[in-house]
Amino acid sequence: xxxxxxxxxxxxxxxxxxxxxxxxxxxxxxxxxxxxxxxxxxxxxxxxxxxxxxxxxxxxxxxxxxxxxxxxxxxxxxxxxxxxxxxxxxxxxxxxxxxxxxxxxxxxxxxxxxxxxxxxxxxxxxxxxxxxxxxxxxxxxxxxxxxxxxxxxxxxxxxxxxxxxxxxxxxxxxxxxxxxxxxxxxxxxxxxxxxxxxxxxxxxxxxxxxxxxxxxxxxxxxxx
Length: 224
Known about the structure:
64% of the residues lie in helices and 0% in strands. By secondary structure, it is mostly helical. The N and C termini lie far apart (43 Å).
C-alpha cells in the first residue's frame, strides 16, 4: 500500500507558494525583465532546477504570480468585507494600502503588458474582461439595472476599474498626499454607492493608522 502521497503533495504546494512569493518580491523590487529565474530560486531556497520542476519557463512563472495574486486578493477581501459587493471592493483597497510591494508589482506588470510581445498580455486582456463582467454583475445585484447616477452597471464597471488602478498609481508615487482608501470611498460616494466618504476608514485611511510608505516595504504578504 502506497503512503506519503499527501505529504508529498503538501510539500509541493508549499514550495510552489514559496516560489510565487519570492517572484512577487523580486518583481516588485527589480521589475519583470530584470528578475531572473536564478534569483527567484535563490530567494525561495531552491536550486534553479528545482524551480523549473514547478515552472518550466519564466512566462509560466509570471502567469502563476498573477493568478496567485488574484486568488489571494479575493479570499482576503471577502473575509474582511460586509454583505454588500462594494464593501468587498473597499475592503480590497484597504488591504492593498498595507502592502505596497504587491501593488507595485501589479501596477508595473499591467502597464508593461500593453506591449505586444509581453508574456502577460493575454492574461491581462482576459483578466480585465472578467473584472468588468464581475463588477457589472456586482453593481446590478446592489443597484438594479440603473445606478443612482443614471449609468448602467456595464457603463460604470470600467470606471470602477480605472479609479481603483489610477488611485493605486497616484498612491505609489505620492503616499503622503494620496490617501487611497479614503479616495476610493469618496468615489463610491460620488457614485452614490455603499461605503462612501462617511464610512469607516481602513488601515490606510485617515480614520486609522497610516500605512507604511510604498518606497519602504518589500512585498511580504499575499498578493493585491
